Batch of 2 targets.
Target 1
Amino acid sequence: MASVYRPERETDFASFQHATPIVIDNGSSAFRIGWAGEAEPRVVFRNIVQRPRHRSSGETVTVVGDTDPALMKYFDCTRSSVRSPFDDDVVYQFEYMEYILDYGFDRLGATSEVSHPILMTECECNPSFSRARMSELLFETYGVPSIAFGIDDAFSYKYNQKLGNCGEDGLAISCEHGTCHVVPFLKGQPVLEACCRTNVGGFHITDFLRQLLSLKYPYHSASITWEKAEELKKEHCSIALDYMSELQIFKNNKEEAEEKTWHWQLPWVPPPKEEPPSEEELARKAALKEKAGQRLRDMAAAKRSQKIAELEKQLSYLEELMEQLDGAEEQEATSILGRSGYLSQQEIKSAILKATQSLRKAKGESNGNEDKAEASGVDKYPLVSVPDETLTPEQLKEKKKQILLKTTTEGRMRAKQRRAEEEALREKQEEERRSENPELYLEELRARYSELTDKVEQRKRQKLNGGQTNGNYSSSGGVGRGERLNAAQKERMRLLTSAAFDRGKGEDTFGMRDEDWLVYKKMSKDNDDEDDGNDDEESELARIASKIQEMDPTFVSKTEAVQPTPEPPKAQTLTAEDYRISIGLERFRCPEILFQPGMIGIDQAGIDEMVSISLRRLVENESVKERLCQSILVTGGCSLLPGMIPRLESGIRQFRPYLAPLKLVRAADPLLDAWRGAAAFGASSKFGRQTFSLADYREHGENLFHRYNIVYSL
Amino acid sequence: MESEVVKTDMVLPLTLGFKKVQTADKYPKGQSRGRQWKHLRYLLQAADASSLPPDRPNYLNIQSPPSIYPPKRYCDITGFEAPYMDPRTKLRYADPEVFKQIRMLPDEYVQRYLALRNAAVVLR
């Protein structure tokens, strides 16, 4: 809907005499207002009210009728929806009715007063409270002198009778917005005793279509508005002559079904193709990355130099302190010590040692440590080579310790050497084997590699699953609710829960034994990253991988290959097809609810059956009924659906005697005939006798309406 | 108010010369009016059922009765004739293909499909 029809304000309101009635066809879908005696209503708009908030001023405003979506951007409609004063076909919300009447009279050109009689349409057997409230509204708020209410279908029938479409006795089938009616007419007067109503109408068709489509295409449910569904209904929906065979076509005959299917292409813009980044872009990004890295490195360097400076300062201070102490008397020394905060010279010494070590570490000389220690191995154990006899018992003890230390270090050294030798030997052997038969060697390496990877994988898996191997291990390592905890985590949870809920029955003995406290250690999170000692395997794996790589440059180490997290599956790019909404069976399924209201859960007879109900209710003989059936008028908005008349005919025939005459006619203009009939009625001389005034209403009150029926015959 | 909005006369003026009682006086601003309307069904019960003689036509008794035909069952998803009903979701379905589909449906959609024929579970 590019442009929405907004009625212009009429200018000739003042030129009408006060006796000229204003005719209002107050239908539940459209409000039509005009002057009695004219051929067309002056103003027509959809009978809806919206009360959105004006965005800039914050006021709640009232908007009547269809609105231009382009203009709705100025309004905040989140808290208000489209309202109708109608429930089914009865006006029951008179606040909204007032807004609509305001707008209607305003568009008709009223300025100072509405002092014209009003002829308003209503539904069959409109409840008297609705009539009463409506008259109150018209009398008190608009100051109209007199009112007449008439049934829209009756006006439509009378108008078509005048056109010759139907006879004096007949039947009106009216499929309106909220309801369907069947009304028999005898001598031009509706027989309300025999009329019947089913609460299904055009609104339900549109709503059914909208809901079906938005359920079928949840992705596009925002595009499937009520207005759009209404448009689709008017354009594409039609009534199947035989719904069951239509279903069969759609179920079994693909080609024919495809022919009957309409497609609605939603606006779709192909997504812009992502171009690979240009050289410049790449260079720029690399430069940026490099810059950032440089900054981080600079920061780290600055921090390190700062730390070094600090340590050096501390060291020099400590050394100075030592010198002072060395050169000082005992008393002075204690005072110096007291000032420095160290307890003894020994402590200062250890502090110096510590400082030098950390300084060395900070300067990056930590690697050299071990070698130096080894180099100074001889100096470290001065007592070892000294014979026992020359030593004091304390020194002896010291010597024993030193011997032990020495042997262990030597042992370690020897083991290291041996390992290195073994390594070299193995390397050599492998080298030989390799040169002997490279193919076989590579094969062996590969086998070993896969074996090891399996092992490592399995260990990881076990760690993750707490030792249980459940078949559907997923390598994604998801974080879902169902993710299993590993064994350590499970144990921790168990301990935590037991600690939380075990409020000791009886005596609390916790802490009696020292081991009790170990629980806390077990509970602490640090336990999680226990090393399972599979380092060996992993290093071996790395070694083999590098070897294989040496020989076979195409080989990719599994750990390397797997390590980068798998990229999330890219959302499939949507094509024009995804933006196409197909209306196949829905074209027939939605209007079918008029004939089978049970499809949307309304337990009432469909419109074809309603005719037989209405005829049954009519207390007349068969010949009259036969006469009625020869003049059936189909009116109301839904009668515009293609296929309506043939379907109704076949439906009604099933209830009529064999070969009984049947004639259906569609109203000349199903939408406007009611207004036209009313306008003709309002212009007749008899109209004045059918109205009631404020005085009448005051006298009788609501009782006035219990027996209120106007005489339609002119 | 924006000029385009004013030009189309979209917004109903607050005061209209032809009215005897202005809307603003009838429904004063700032007062919470709440839901002062009642459902049609309630109004009908309150008004007509008691005061009207049953032999005369009124809004309630002109309603059509249920159809004399046995109701046909249609698949909630496809609209085809549905010989089966899923006991879990209570959705009717036409064939095993649709059955697979309805078993995949999230509950919200099941309820929406059921609501189409007024069979959804209404939680109050």
Note: Chain A touches chain B through 77 residues (CB under 8 Å).
Target 2
Amino acid sequence: MEEKRHTSLHYEKELQEIKNSLIYLGALTEKAIQDAMKALSERNSEMANKIIKDDDDIDKLDTELEERCIRVLALRQPTAIDLRFITTAIKITGHLERIGDMAVNIAEKAIQLNQEPQLKPYIDLPRMTDLVTTMIKDSLDSFINNDLERAEKVRRMEEVIDDLNEQIFRELLTFMMEDSKSIHRALLIMQVSKNMERIADHTKGIADMVTYMITGENVRHQTREIS
Amino acid sequence: MDANMIISLHNVNFYYGPSRALNDISMDFPEKQVTALIGPSGCGKSTLLRLLNRMNDLIIGTRVEGKVLFEGKDIYDGHVDPVEIRRKIGMVFQKPNPFPKTIYNNIAYGPKLTGANAGDLDALVEQSLKQAVLWDEVKDVLNKSAMNLSGGQQQRLCIARALAMKPDVLLMDEPTSALDPISTAKIEELIEELKKNYTIIIVTHNMQQAARISDSTAFFYIGNLIEYNKTEKIFTNPDVKQTEDYITGRFG
């Protein structure tokens, strides 16, 4: 449902600016994840170093956003939907900042992996990357458009990522068993996969908060029925 | 709500002359809790408050329909004495309105009129002032005029005056709107304390105040009760869109 505007247009503007900054932060993290995967698949360590450096921007924006939300809490004393919006925004910025850290982790692993011959062609990891960037985008879209269904979609996708991660683990185990010289590289790739899986967890965290924002119901920590 | 309901309204309409100020209000007020009435000016919240101890009787041309039960008995029954009702259901107003008398006599005035034993008065004055957390500030100046007190002290004096009549319910009509933040905090603290022994119904324009001190909140709009819910629910996730628009400042 379209919300009526606040009587105070300044307040309205403050909330809109928080939304805009979150979208921008989301775009930065999406790009960081995509670039981290590229740095790995294209063996481009220069790109990896840039991701590590650019994470400062993500951290800075996260701090700014959090301060802005706290300012609204202190000065406007939001209630009801506005209160749920602000608490959700604070949580989302935290999740996005962590996603940025995951991109840094992946970039660091890429630099190490790029120093050795490539163990295997990367097939599932790019797929995972596409999925998690879609999840970041969908979780933020669900936030901006009050879209419960899209939040639910993110939660479902998170299970797909879990499965992919397990599949990658199993595959790498066979590499390690066959050739002990592959263990170091296989472990690094496992960590990349694990980082992707944690990014998916963060997008689910965002989706859960969006559901809370829209319905007032806390769905975090609810175990899903296995179908 | 498991609490005992001390006041119950059944299908109450209220008229100022031909114009209806309250439409078919039914609600219960739980005993020893704080209930806040909120809503924009003219929504009927103060009218409703005054109706609970028949203060509206004093305004010519008003009329009540429906039932207002206090401890199960209709306070608008023909044989009910409104003075007796107002003794049991006390009131504190927006502007502190002490009598132009000494602090002592402000408290003692009501009990004297209703035949309190002169020997008990000292104890009653002390007890009432202590309950209103004013005793320490005024115990040495009891015979000075109440008009010399600060606004916040005057308001606490008015609360002490109401308490001296040993009421069951205290009605408060924006009791802090004329006070500074520190005096306001003292009154709010006092309300928290008083609800252990009294039922408090408070009209306030200060939404944060309603959120801070009340257990339940009722939102009124042009004479209708729009939503009556636990305060926490009203301020985090109200059931009715109109309530949300009002408390988040999206009204009109």
Note: Chain B touches chain A through 18 residues (CB under 8 Å).
